[in-house]
Known about the structure:
The protein is an all-alpha fold and 93 residues long. The chain has 2 helices and no strands. The longest helix has 30 residues, at 5-34.
Amino acid sequence: MRRNRREFLRTCCQLGAASFTAHLTRLAPMTASAQGLSNKTLVCVFLFGGNDSNNMVVPIDSRYAAYQAMRGPVALAPGVLLPAGTSGFGGRD
Length: 93
């Protein structure tokens, strides 16, 4: 039996919705426990793909030269680095 594109997309959407619904039940306990907290921030970072962890926290003091020598051409330029605790994305400190 040959399927057309519409049937294929319908099947994909149904499978995606079922998967999404199954994952929602796992989020309920986290939401319930987070409601009891006050003045707390939970940050979840989902990284799909690789992460260069050596460029995640970069020294901006006298150790920068050693970092730059070790990282070579993939070292981040000093002009793009922010001190820890500074928000460069429109958030609050």
